[in-house]
Amino acid sequence: MIFWKLFYVFFKIGLFGFGGGYAMLALIQQDVVDEHQWVSSQEFTDIVAISQMTPGPIAINSATYVGFTAVHNAGYSQQMSVLGSVTATIAVCLPSLLLVLLISLSYAKFRSNRYIAAAFLGLRPATVGLIAAAALLLMNSENFIDYKSFIIFAAAFILTWKFNVHPILMILIAAALGLFIY
After folding, report:
1. Labelling 11: which of 52, 71, 174, 177 has CA 20 to 30 A away?
2. Residue 79 has what pLDDT?
3. Which of 105, 33, 107, 35 minimizes the C-alpha distance to 65?
4. How far apart are the first and last CA of the chain?
5. How far apart, in whole angstroms, are the C-alpha atoms of residue 176 and residue 43?
């Protein structure tokens, strides 16, 4: 049944998705588009775009939208599709809740342990790799990056990094540039 599969897939993603929502996108895409084919590549790109615009963490928003779309594409009613959203959302959040409870109980006791400190240091490069994988995932035929987009990105990066332009202001400037250029 699709609900158990949704729960399993998103529980696994929530369990192994270190690095936040953007890092989880590659895992979500691999499972729901490539392996199970619950949503198409175009639908997944649309889901990511909507998830970015919707308030809240992108991984949770993506799980919610994928759960709905997967159940809907499987031929179930709209009410059952909402249940698919709830299933995927709970499944992606549950591992974090359980791990945070476990870590918070253990961390105070073992925080000075050198092995624990080494494990946290080892997770940093893996996180960077998962975020890079998410960026590469979004560079597909639906999201062609031309030189104008790259110039806007480079300008935003330099203005934010060198001149400490506030991110919200940078988003507005980049949006205005995009409207003007395109």
Report:
1. 52
2. 94
3. 33
4. 45
5. 27
